[in-house]
Recover the amino acids of this structure.
């Protein structure tokens, strides 16, 4: 595929975003190993008040999980659609296109995981069982989030738009 100047700039943006996503995945996996050496239960959530190290690890995991999903959904996905000539629109429409093209297996799951942000960041102050469930669900769906980013990169490579 022959690229014009504008598309070369867009492809460079994708290269940058790929590097960012790859680094975010490494950091998220590191945090996940620290927090989820065992299931994250209500009992562990209760211990956060007295266990500063675990509290910091949970904070890092939560932040990194949300950041990766933001980077993929708000930056990488629209940039990919733009390079494909799909005119990125609002987030839900971009997700629908990604599902139709085949790089996202479930818009519904993506949106459910997006809702975990508030549960991990805000609601845990009032209800530690909500925090425990949100954290465990996030961990159980890491491969889904990572897989979307990897699928976008693979799609570009299949189209001859190498972004390495």
């Amino acid at each position: 595929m022959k690229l014009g100047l504008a598309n070369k700039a867009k492809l460079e943006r994708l290269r940058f975003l790929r590097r960012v996503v790859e680094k975010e995945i490494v950091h998220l996996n590191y945090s996940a190993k620290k927090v989820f050496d065992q299931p994250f239960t209500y009992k562990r959530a209760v211990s956060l008040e007295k266990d500063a190290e675990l509290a910091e690890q949970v904070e890092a995991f939560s932040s990194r999980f949300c950041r990766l999903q933001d980077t993929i959904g708000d930056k990488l996905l629209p940039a990919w659609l733009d390079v494909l000539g799909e005119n990125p629109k609002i987030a839900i429409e971009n997700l629908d296109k990604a599902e139709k093209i085949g790089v996202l297996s479930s818009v519904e799951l993506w949106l459910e995981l997006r809702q975990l942000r508030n549960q991990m960041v805000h609601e845990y102050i009032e209800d530690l069982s909500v925090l425990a469930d949100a954290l465990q669900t996030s961990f159980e769906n890491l491969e889904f989030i990572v897989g979307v980013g990897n699928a976008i990169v693979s799609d570009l490579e299949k189209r001859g738009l190498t972004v390495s």
